[in-house]
Write a structure and sequence with these properties.
Strand 5 and strand 6 form a beta hairpin. The chain has a domain of 234 residues: 3-Layer(aba) Sandwich (Rossmann fold), CATH 3.40.50. The chain is built from 13 helices and 15 strands. It is of the alpha/beta class. The radius of gyration is 22 Å and the shape is globular. The protein has a six-stranded antiparallel beta sheet.
Amino acid sequence: MYISRLSAKNWKNFTNIDVSLQDIVYLVGPNASGKSNFLDIFRFLRDVVNPKGGGLQKAVSDRGGLKKVRCLAARKYPNVELHVELKEDLEETTPTWQYHLSFQGDQSNKQRVRIVSEEVYENGNRILNRPEQEDVDDPERMTSTFLEQVNANKGFRDIATSLSDVLYLHLVPQLLKFGNQLAVQRMESDPFGQGFLDMVAETSGRTRDSRLKRINAILQSVIPQYGELQFEPDKSGVPHLKVRYDNWRENGAWQTEDQFSDGTLRLISLLWTLMSSKKLILLEEPELSLHGPIVEQIPRMFHDALRSQKKTIGQIIVSTHSERLLSDKSMKAGSFLIVRPGEKGEASRIEPLDEEDKILMRAGKSPAEIVFAKTESAVKWLL
């Protein structure tokens, strides 16, 4: 299932968002313009439907309450509104599902929020329209969504399942290498990759070997002197990855993950995630710690990793500051969103490439030449 469109009102530093989404989306903008806040919309919806005890109230609370979620530039309109459309195939004209949620502060309890409206459409037909009469008779019902309740979402559980599968990854190599020594508590969704080796170990041997073989082939094409990647538990059963480099030793030299460069470790975990997940994957700055020529290959790695599966995953949304990552002139024009910061306290906005930009790309301009020119002009007022 693909999320084909996302709309939002009064979300953090945006007063209004309305964008169409492709299978791979590159999100570009200056620092503090709102890229992470945009990605957090998907994480928020995932938290709302979290089967391990999420829900609307906790999703808002975990973000510091409504005052941290609602856009400060929304001076008159009190509601936060989120709307997603999902399709089985992005080529379809009508979305399979539409979900709309609007909420605001609860006047009777400042620590929580109250739903203003919740709607669901299936193939264009509205099948849920809250508040219902029971909600009017019992206003406490409007403090939780039907989407998060398994006894209420039976008719549209595909939406909840798709949103619960959202995966956010911003790997911190030091936490993977030294997490036990640092005694850092692992977050539930493990966004920083502390449990990556455990995930590899828990994968069946045949599937694990197949993925590592494909990763190995990709790494051999982009890392000098790279030889071979293997998975091997130690004598106590602790899982390890091993890499052999073709150097001056006749049989090569093996290193375990605590000796890998940050870039190599990030690259391996990124490729594994792409191959193992059929979810919506949110990636922040995958170019970190990587050499420039390798960064240029990331879009091709995305393509190779996704197409190596029998079925492609839903989507990837990538935030980046790297011009080299967007230097490939063969990248699709519809896959770019530009985040522009607002001037003098105004809200940020998100724009796709316009028709003139697409013409320039068809004429041979790279995405980097177009999108970074726009972000540079957008940030001049800050300097």
